[in-house]
């Protein structure tokens, strides 16, 4: 019963590139409907871990399942069941809002009817009715990010990976963005998020911290702050990251 | 299949909304064809010729009239001394001069008439063309003369230019232009379009989507196949309307061979995109790695048989060389597959090799 409620199960997941161990035997799991914060300094191995979990990279050793599928043997099934939004713009700048929605609906195999109803809903939710035929290029950054997130979950995946989704976005939009994230979890979508804004880490249900390829700790933000006797996640993160072998 | 169409549709949005792509796609064929057809021509018409006529008789005037009445020459200067002639060349009033000695007419009856042609060697190509044109006119006149008055028993060589009887240079350039355009559109635009997704990061989204890498590559390539075929037909029709150049062989065969060459060029483009991470790099690689060799080493402008051996060997790895042989064969000589199967096989082999290499490279990137 317990395992059915887990969307990600990671057991000793490792990735080595030659002599370099990018991800060193990380073990954790993510529960259904949870907002899971995945923190770590640049080069800590976050991106490699996400690539393995999204079926882009096969692990060197260890096991992991995402949405019930094995990352090493069933990457195709995983891809159908996850959404992904990266720090880069996930949208095509030379296409309109509507065209972007249709494109993503199309490549995730949604039917024409589904795409139509979904895009109406989505545009209405974001209040973009007047702009649906505008090129994405000219939209404010915050709108783009909110749109990108909504499109990343258009096929109703069981989990969505967000790789630094709010970088460069103003605080108000970031708030609104997190509003969308909460809304998605109410639909039963699990959110796996990396971020550089550590106050955002406090919005997460649980947070893991990676240092030099190791998963150093994993708990709720409150517990972590208590454990390391800090007032905020920023100090917790700095305290842990300072122990890195490679100082930046 | 539905996913595939959604992808193709997106590709067409990219192509039709990018002005630079459109310019390369549709502007270049027109510009190149007109440039090579009209401006860069090796044909001569209305070339300036200087005349230094020292012979008092009729014959020399007849000869000069013969030169004048041809489309090739117009007399730009009549000089009366060597010094004047020098000046004509220095001031560029003529590129060629005909010198008729005082005893021309007497000599004609004794079969020892002499004429001197002086050409400006600072442009050797032009000098050769001008002097051989002048020579031809003089020979023709002489034959006419001797045929009427005094039959001369001599060997006359009649040269006929097979496949291109009037030696129109545009006939040679059209196949070359098609080759360049197909290579450029296919390889450059594909590599740039893939490199752009890498540069902007959108390729990550494609990789995590259920689209298989193979489908992504095919989806990138198919729009350019369609547009390139369209381009080839467009150039052929334009060549036919503007320059009156027919396709002597089978059009179906020509289009099939073009399709093969397009696939070769596209796989080259995909290969380039696997090693370049930015649009700029893709552009540089395709321009310098493809364009120059295609123009210089394919036999389009410089005959391969005149090249030094090392370059002749290198020319064999250039797909355009083989396509040029094929397209010239079909368009000008009207040959069938029997005569060009070897070149066809070479292109097939090159395509397969590059596709295998690209897929390998793509996979390594993903590992």
Describe this structure in words.
- The complex is a heterodimer of chains A (248) and B (367).
- Helices cover 36% and strands 26% of the residues of chain A.
- By secondary structure, chain A is an alpha/beta fold.
- Chain A has one domain (2-91, 157-241): Rossmann fold.
- Chain A is globular, with a radius of gyration of 18 Å.
- Chain B has helices spanning 2-17, 19-39, 58-69, 82-90, 104-109, 124-148, 169-200, 202-208, 213-243, 251-275, 279-297, 309-314, 319-333, 337-366; strands at residues 47-53, 73-78, 96-100, 116-119.
- Chain B has a four-stranded mixed beta sheet with strand order 2-1-3-4, sandwiched between helices.
Summarize the structure.
The complex is a heterodimer of chains A (248) and B (367). Chain A is an alpha/beta fold and 248 residues long.
Q: What is the count of β-strands of chain B? A: 4
User: Roughly how much helix do the residues of chain A carry, as a percent range?
Assistant: 25-40%
Structural class of chain A: alpha/beta
* Total number of domains of chain B: 2
The largest beta-sheet of chain A arranges its strands as: 6-7-8-3-9-10
Chains forming the largest contact: A-B, 30 and 25 residues
Gross CATH architecture of chain A? 3-Layer(aba) Sandwich
CATH domain topology of chain A: Rossmann fold
User: Structural class given helices, strands, pairing of chain B?
Assistant: mainly alpha
Q: Estimate the helix proportion of chain B, in percent.
A: 55-70%
Q: What's the total helix number of chain B?
A: 14
Query: Whole-number radius of gyration of chain B?
Result: 27 Å
Termini separation of chain B: 26 Å
Classify the beta-strand content of chain A into a percent band. 25-35%
